[in-house]
Amino acid sequence: MLLSQGRLRQTILALTLTFVLAFSFLLFRADIFEKLPVPKQLKPEGPPPPKPTPLYKPPPERRPDITDNFPRAAKANSSSALPEIPPWNKPPQPHVKEKTPLFVGFTRNWRLLQQVVVSYITAGWPPEDIYVVDNSGVMQSNQKGLLTLQNPFYLNYNRLTTLLEVNVLTTPTLLTFAQLQNFFTYTALEKEWEHYFWAHMDSPVVSDEEYEEQGQPYRSLYMRALAVMRETMQPGYGLLAARWFSYDRLSLVRTQAFVDVGGWDTLIPFYMTDCDMHERLWMKNFTIEDAKAGLVYDVASGIDDLEMFYRRKRRSTKREEPPAPAMEADGRNSPEYHELLSKLDEMQRSKNEDKAGRNTWQSAQQGGQGEPFYRDGAGFEQGISMTMNFGRDVFEAKWGRVFCDLREAGLEANDAWRVIPGWEKKELQKQARKDREKEMKERQKKQKQARL
Which parts of the chain have pLDDT scores under 50? Predict the structure, then answer.
């Protein structure tokens, strides 16, 4: 018996050693398999198929290059070389005791940004109170002058800070609309601003030079906006969240109100995030009230020469001579003023009637290839559009419906993320009633059994 077990062990050892040697031989001589004949039916016929290559979309239609819309500023070396602000709109000196910061967010289209900044300055807003937020996502590239005019994300940092004398804040990366709004609120908290204003970069403004309140002298857009802010600061004014001037194209925000509702929902990046924020404010009994301070426009293009906002008359010249530089000061409510309003009205109408959409200005530039943080313009636009659609889906998942009127539908703040999608549909409501009736009957049955 012991002899048989010994032979068995020897046999197992021999087989194991043979397997190891054979495996090692094959491992180091894998080329043997390459020399073995391949059965005829397994041999590929003809050359191997070509490797797939990328297939490209047709290139976008080339648009004309843009030009800078403030020629005088392009030639200027200091702020003193720019026209003076219309004297009837100059900000008070010294500055009023209140802080009146105005945020203007920027991602792309320099012409529109420069236009809205100039419009606020010439409407009386103190330049030192204007904060352009460079949300182009190019980090310090604009500050270092590394981008060129045809790049959609180009911003002339030197002109804004040195010539127009406004502030520029740079976000660390590209923010969505909701994130940018929270950045405004965060900055206000850091600087201890109880109120702040913010404006759309495609909404230039003009002081209403025909409007005079009864018994009050003329006031610029800035001074009227300041009066609105002072009104909201009165004791006992109430739970105010914001004052809107022409919807929220210009908006006054009470900082703490936005903090109290948890800020903007960054899971809803663009469209519908305003519905979500405003409805949550109203659900918490905050108010949003309309106000007037001047004329606020919504445009998709820029005036070719922003000197028009400074209201300078051109000196008359002989017919054969080129027009003289605009040097002579204009007057309030003049023909030049109405010419400016007419131009802005035309631009606003053109935007609203454009069959291609209201926001074509966002993809007006196509340059910047080879520059830091370059993004394909059409691809960036497509990505933003996809993100917008995602936000709509999140809003529907959060509130169970696609429309803004959450309170009218009976929803409350605590209902967020708790309601069933499509809860308003008749079949779901009918099933819910059946379930409640069934649950009530079972509860009554258990209570009856418990009494027995």
Answer: 2-3, 317-324
